[in-house]
Write a structure and sequence with these properties.
The strands form two sheets. Strands 4, 5, 6, 7, 8, 9, 10 and 11 form an eight-stranded mixed beta sheet that branches. Strands 1-2-3 form a three-stranded antiparallel beta sheet. The protein is of the alpha+beta class.
Length: 186
């Protein structure tokens, strides 16, 4: 990319309630409107040798099918209010989407979804010591299915979901880890 692109003025080509399409030099990209970003939750339960991870699947209009994902939600959207902290959003979304609350929370940092095309970042937050407090499934506009999967079986679970036609969110790679690389790398 040339320095001219870095220094070019940013143009907004379209703005909606949730996303804004922008152009800077030769680059076209999308950002969240109002500087909203996401909290993504890696929810784990059980002792290390019996650890389970909570996954969800829901229909995603942009990909035209259900998608297997880590629980997540927007920080500071209408439900959370302006100025909401990532940890508060994570707590709210974990309970709303999955019906679980967690005893321990660890902020693992900020990450970008697809930095060549999106200006969206998310906070990855680990939640442990889960307690079921409700049904989950999301709010009235969502149809979320909750899965609690043994970590030792996650690769097979993801492969089965893919075979059934589910899209797989890239953040699932965080829990697949070295298993995606094959035995010679583990």
């Amino acid at each position: 990319m040339s320095v001219a692109d870095w220094n070019a003025p940013e143009e907004i080509t379209w703005a909606g309630k949730w996303v804004t399409a922008r152009k800077r030099g030769r680059w076209e990209y999308v950002t969240r409107s109002r500087n909203i970003r996401a909290a993504v939750i890696l929810a784990l339960d059980g002792l290390p040798e019996q650890r389970e991870v909570v996954l969800i699947d829901q229909y995603r209009v942009p990909v035209g099918r259900r998608c297997l994902e880590l629980p997540a939600g927007l920080i500071g959207d209408d439900a959370g209010g302006a100025g909401e902290a990532p940890m508060a959003a994570a707590r709210r979304e974990l309970e709303e989407e999955t019906g679980y609350r967690a005893r321990e929370w660890i902020d693992l940092g900020e990450f970008w979804s697809s930095p060549g095309m999106l200006g969206e970042s998310f906070s990855l937050i680990r939640a442990e010591g889960l307690e079921r407090v409700g049904p989950g499934g999301g709010d009235e506009s969502e149809d979320i299915l909750v899965h609690k999967v043994p970590v030792a079986q996650i690769a097979g679970f993801v492969a089965e979901a893919r075979a059934r036609g589910l899209a797989i969110d890239v953040r699932i790679l965080a829990i697949l880890g070295a298993g995606m690389l094959g035995d010679r790398f583990t």
